[in-house]
Design brief:
The complex is a heterotrimer. Chain A has seven helices and five strands. By secondary structure, chain A is an alpha+beta fold. Chain A has a three-stranded antiparallel sheet with strand order 1-2-5. In chain B, helix 5 links the parallel strand 9 and strand 10. The longest helix of chain B has 16 residues. Chain B has a domain of about 290 residues: TIM Barrel. By secondary structure, chain B is α/β, with parallel strands linked by helices. Chain C folds into two domains: about 190 residues, 3-Layer(aba) Sandwich (Rossmann fold), CATH 3.40.50.740; about 160 residues, Dimethylsulfoxide Reductase, domain 2 (3-Layer(aba) Sandwich). Chain C contains 14 helices and 17 strands. In chain C, the strands form four sheets. Chain C has a six-stranded mixed sheet, with helices on one face. In chain C, strands 9-8-7-10-11 form a five-stranded parallel sheet, with helices on one face. In chain C, helix 3 runs parallel beside helix 14 and helix 4 runs parallel beside helix 10. Classes of the chains: A alpha+beta, B alpha/beta, C alpha/beta. At the B-C interface, helix 2 and strand 14 of B face helix 4, strand 6, helix 5, helix 10 and helix 11 of C.
């Protein structure tokens, strides 16, 4: 539910604008947030004195891999398999009556995401509204995730 | 004794309205669990000694296992256990009791509870709620309705349909425009051509008979007494019955009983469960000071006083199993005797006295027909061998008649002796839930709201019919 | 015999590694030889029936629609280090020892049959009866508290489908489904679309009362972070918003407004976390709403206990007219039936001479609610979940997990009995069935 902000990240960067990463610290914070770079890509962060910051940023950003089509990052370790995101997804609501009524998708359903082994997984990200450039940006799944396992960047 | 044993009941005074046997002295033959043609080599001979015999009794309305009823055990000590229910019926010479309703969602719960009751066969109807049918009714999609009805009966293992309320008033504010009037509902049912889904049972409601019911022969009013609230309703009830409508009527009221109210009224101390029918299903333990003076029971007696053979009425206990079904012999004895009738009954029933032929019709033939048990309620060759013999004499006074009717001398169920010489035998008979075989189109399962709405997938909702 | 291994790593091969597109597409998954669908999960009493299992050579390789609670149970029985089945002679010896232990230690406490299937519960009842013991579920105190209120006030209840279809205000009173029943909100109580709540959660209002940071807190519209001793004041204020002095809380007026606009209100309460007086006041509130006949308020228990707590309740009612077990022992106070009203775990611990315990999950969470004094009693634990014998257990008997390794009937929270079928290929015949173990002990006893 709570979205990470660029300022949460910037707080822990060296804030020297040394340019070794090729950009300013604020810009780097933005790319960290969008998972286009990693904390390791900031050389000063690997220097003594910044161990705690680097560790914090690594944990804060988590292991989730960004899906490029949708910008969705799922932090699987935080997911409890509650299925709320599947329920609130407007694509499911419009196209799959059973899912809208609260049942989990079947193996034959073509859905954006599914609970696989108690974790949410994107199975058809191309169906997500966010994959449609002209569609208004949808944040339903991340907005309603109670454990912050879903993040949109 | 095994079902395979061949039994001959000799010298019985047989009452079987289906064959117009009004106390004929006959022998009855039983083989392979069914009434048979005569044979020479019986394994068991029962000398009835002139005692009256009839088919095993059938109670067409008893809340054996209504959804959530089990919780009433916490609020009243009068709720009988499954064992006690089965034995109580068997003691009275009954072989079948009918649970008025279940729903698609609660069918499994009800089936499980019914399976716990020994000695008797059971059946139930499945409720159709006009919330689900409302769309079909408004758009006059008769075929769609029939498809859904058939699927419902098949999936739940019901023996027929039960229409909880013949009108629909959506409670939620935004849905009020979707109300369906009773008039519209009945018009809809009148236009249906699929005879297999009829008769549909309707819960007796206070305002049900304020207007005439169209196509009466398609309906069965359950607990008719509750609809007899005015002179208009009494007159309409008679018209309904005269035109081929069916009804069961309960004349039982004990001093203290578990009240099952179908009206939309919540009183303190009520257990009420939203079981998927339009209104919550309320149970409340009530003490009735003088049941015979209560308004509820008297109209029913009045109607019984005007009954004739053409009217398809069955006597029911309308019982939560709080002991009311044990009053069936008392009610029966009042119908047969006028020496101990309470004044209120005497005032309404008048001088009418019923014989065993009429009693057999009320408690055997008509209930079997209403439930849809073609092989029960009568003693024709090929019928299930369910025979009750009572140690009953015509000149017995009221109390002795009650005693005789409460403790049948002999009961045979499916060709197996259950009671002999007024006591239970060692063996417990098989006990089934009777289902109805009905064709339906499986393809509708995928595209009908009624069957897609439940939170469970259909394959987990439908019950296993392991008994026939 | 082999323990099944659940191998998460095997799923993350190169072909399915998450990169640009789908991660673990169901369509691309064909690395299995048998699959089962619309299976019933017995992780909690939500009894989700939309679970799919995929097996390859007898090992579970994928599941669909299982939540974390169920997954933990599944992992524990498929774990390599699950307690192995006792060889027949050792099992025999253990059963023998168990019978002797029970015989020599006074009144046994038969605890936790709400973790078993229907057959197990029935057998445990007979077992307790024959041994003249105490027969109690994990959820004993909460269930007792709840049903004592039912006796006093009656009860307005509903099926979960009706909550989904009709509830416009949903309140979780000291209950957190995201802690104990993960899919409850998405399947029944808040998010799904219903007959009269066609827009799902946007047609509903969710309020939570808790004295800690509940997992559900980010989702609710009103959150009352109050101490338990403030509950009654809140309930009375909700019953009578105009009372003086007014109830001061920023979410109070919004909840009042929601309640006024709602025609159907559902309260899920965890009676383990709610005291008697609060529960009674909730029931009084429900009664006052329902007798007005303008609205309906249903109260439903959300009990964190064995997954078959509803089955236990029903079977207990069938046999004993109480929903919370029975005291078969001879030394009941005042020779009363059932369990006396004021009995609690401490008193039970005093009375019990030994304990037969049916474990309800791998983490033994429910054991934490037991008093210390019970842990000193001779203990027999019957469990499918353990990786190590419990330190203080005298006898541990590993059994099959009902609903996965054997068929078992479980009851959903609203009373629906559902058959959870075994997964063919998963059964390990060497694990005995819990109810058979009890019968064997009884034979020797």
């Amino acid at each position: 539910m709570s979205q990470k902000s660029i300022y949460d990240i910037y707080e822990y960067l060296p804030k020297t604008n040394c340019g070794e990463c090729g950009m300013s610290c604020m810009k780097f914070a933005g790319f960290l947030l969008s998972r286009d770079v990693k904390p390791d890509d900031c050389p000063p962060l690997s220097e003594p004195g910044f161990e705690e910051s680097k560790q914090y940023l690594t944990e804060f950003l988590g292991d989730g891999v960004k899906n490029e089509l949708t910008g969705l990052i799922v932090e699987q370790d935080l997911c409890i398999g509650c299925g709320i995101c599947i329920n609130v997804c407007p694509v499911h609501g419009a196209n799959n009556r059973e899912v809208a009524l609260g049942k989990g998708p079947t193996c034959d359903d073509v859905v954006v995401m599914q609970i696989i082994d108690a974790r949410i997984d994107l199975v058809h990200p191309e169906l997500c509204n966010r994959a449609i450039p002209s569609a208004p940006p949808c944040k339903a799944c991340a907005d309603y995730c109670p454990t912050d396992a879903m993040e949109l960047v | 004794m095994e079902t395979e044993k061949k039994i001959c009941i000799q010298n019985a005074e047989v009452y079987d309205p289906a064959q117009n046997w009004n106390g004929e002295h006959r022998d009855l033959y039983i083989a392979e669990g069914k009434i048979s043609t005569p044979f020479d080599d019986p394994d068991i001979v029962i000398d009835a000694g002139g005692k009256p015999a009839m088919a095993g009794g059938i109670d067409p309305y008893c809340h054996l296992a209504s959804p959530g009823q089990i919780f009433a055990k916490m609020t009243t000590k009068h709720l009988l256990s499954p064992d006690e229910i089965g034995k109580a019926y068997a003691r009275m010479g009954y072989v079948h009791a009918h649970q008025p309703f279940t729903t698609l969602l609660t069918a499994r719960e009800v089936q499980r509870s019914l399976n716990l009751i020994p000695y008797i066969d059971k059946s139930f109807r499945v409720s159709i709620d006009l919330r689900d049918m409302g769309k079909n009714i408004k758009t006059k999609k008769h075929l769609a309705f029939c498809d859904e009805a058939r699927a419902l009966i098949h999936l739940t293992g019901a023996i027929g349909l039960f229409l909880t309320f013949p009108y629909l008033k959506h409670k939620q504010q935004y849905y009020i425009q979707k109300n369906v009037s009773a008039k519209k509902a009945f018009e809809f049912f009148s236009a249906i051509e699929d005879q297999d889904i009829f008769p549909i049972a309707i819960w007796g409601m206070p305002d049900l008979l304020e207007k005439e019911i169209p196509v009466p022969d398609r309906f069965l009013i359950s607990d008719l007494n509750k609809s007899l609230k005015s002179e208009t309703s009494m007159a309409n009830a008679k018209k309904f019955l005269d035109a081929g409508g069916k009804a069961d009527i309960g004349l039982n009221h004990g001093e203290e009983y578990l009240s099952v109210n179908s009206i939309d009224k919540y009183l303190p101390g009520t257990l009420s469960i939203d079981a998927g029918i339009h209104n919550p299903y309320p149970l409340r333990y009530e003490t009735i000071q003088d049941p015979l003076e209560s308004e509820e029971s008297l109209p029913g007696w009045m109607l019984m006083g005007n009954i004739n053979e053409n009217r398809q009425i069955a006597l029911s206990s309308i019982s939560p199993p709080s002991g009311d079904m044990n009053r069936i012999p008392v009610v029966t004895a009042w119908l047969m005797n006028n020496d101990e009738r309470p004044q209120s009954i005497e005032n309404t029933l008048g001088e009418k006295i019923m014989g065993l032929f009429e009693i057999a019709r009320l408690t055997r033939l008509e209930p079997a027909r209403q439930i849809g048990l073609d092989d029960s309620g009568h003693l024709k060759t090929g019928a299930r061998a369910n025979v009750a013999i009572y140690d009953l004499k015509p000149d017995m006074g009221f109390h002795k008649k009650v005693k005789a009717l409460s403790n049948c001398w002999c009961l045979i169920k499916d060709g197996k002796p259950v009671r002999e010489n007024g006591s239970f035998s060692n063996s417990i008979p098989s006990s089934k839930i009777r289902y109805r075989e009905i064709d339906f189109d499986p393809s509708i399962l995928k595209h009908t709201d009624l069957l897609q709405n439940p939170t469970l997938r259909l394959e987990n909702l439908s019950i296993t019919k392991n008994q026939k | 015999m082999s323990n099944k291994k659940f191998d998460r790593e095997s799923l993350e091969s190169e072909d399915t590694a998450p990169s640009q597109g789908s991660s673990l597409s169901q369509e691309s998954f064909n690395d299995f030889d048998t699959d089962y669908h619309s299976r019933i999960c017995t992780g909690c009493n939500c009894l989700c029936d939309d679970v799919s299992y995929y097996l390859k050579k007898g090992q579970m390789v994928r599941t669909l629609n299982l939540c974390e609670i169920a997954m933990k149970k599944l992992r524990s029985v498929t774990a390599d280090n699950r307690l192995i089945p006792l060889p027949p002679d050792i099992l025999s010896e253990s059963i023998d020892k168990a019978a002797k232990l029970l015989k020599n230690n006074g009144t046994p406490l038969i605890l936790g049959a709400d973790a078993l299937d229907e057959k197990g519960i029935q057998t445990s009842n007979d077992f307790a009866r024959q041994l003249k013991g105490l027969w109690l579920p994990w959820g004993f105190t909460g269930v007792k508290r709840f049903y004592e209120c039912v006796k006093l006030y009656g009860w307005a209840s509903s099926l979960l489908d009706e909550v989904r279809d009709r509830a416009e205000t949903v309140i979780f009173w000291r209950a957190d489904p995201l802690d104990t029943h993960h899919r409850h909100l998405s399947r029944y109580s808040f998010f799904p679309r219903g007959r009269y709540t066609e827009l799902g959660n946007t047609d509903r209002n969710l309020a939570v009362i808790a004295d800690y940071e509940a997992v559900i807190e980010p989702l609710c519209q009103q959150f009352f972070n109050i101490e338990p001793d403030e509950d009654i004041r809140l309930i009375k204020a909700l019953m009578n918003p105009a009372m003086e002095p007014p109830y001061e809380h920023r979410d109070f007026p919004i909840l009042v407004n929601s309640l006024q606009r709602s025609s159907y209100i559902a309260i899920f309460v965890d009676p383990e976390n709610t005291d008697n007086e609060t529960l009674k006041t909730l029931f009084e509130w429900s009664e006052s709403i329902n007798t007005s006949n303008m609205k309906r308020m249903v109260i439903l228990p959300l009990i964190n206990a064995g997954s078959n707590i509803e089955g236990f309740t029903r079977i207990s009612l069938e046999h004993h007219a109480t929903g919370y077990g029975f005291d078969f022992s001879d030394n009941k106070p005042d020779n009363k039936q059932g369990v006396s009203e004021d009995v609690d775990w401490e008193m039970i611990a005093d009375k019990a001479g030994s304990v037969v315990m049916f474990e309800s999950g791998p983490e033994g969470a429910h054991r934490k609610r037991l008093p210390e004094s019970l842990s000193e009693k001779p203990l027999i634990i019957i469990t499918p979940f353990k990786q190590e014998p419990l330190e203080n257990a005298d006898i541990t008997i590993p059994v099959a997990l009902s609903g996965i390794e054997t068929d078992g009937v479980f009851f959903r929270a609203d009373g629906m009995p559902l058959l959870s079928k075994k997964i063919d290929g998963m059964e390990v015949n060497e694990y005995p069935l819990a109810h058979r173990v009890l019968k064997e002990i009884l034979k020797i006893y």
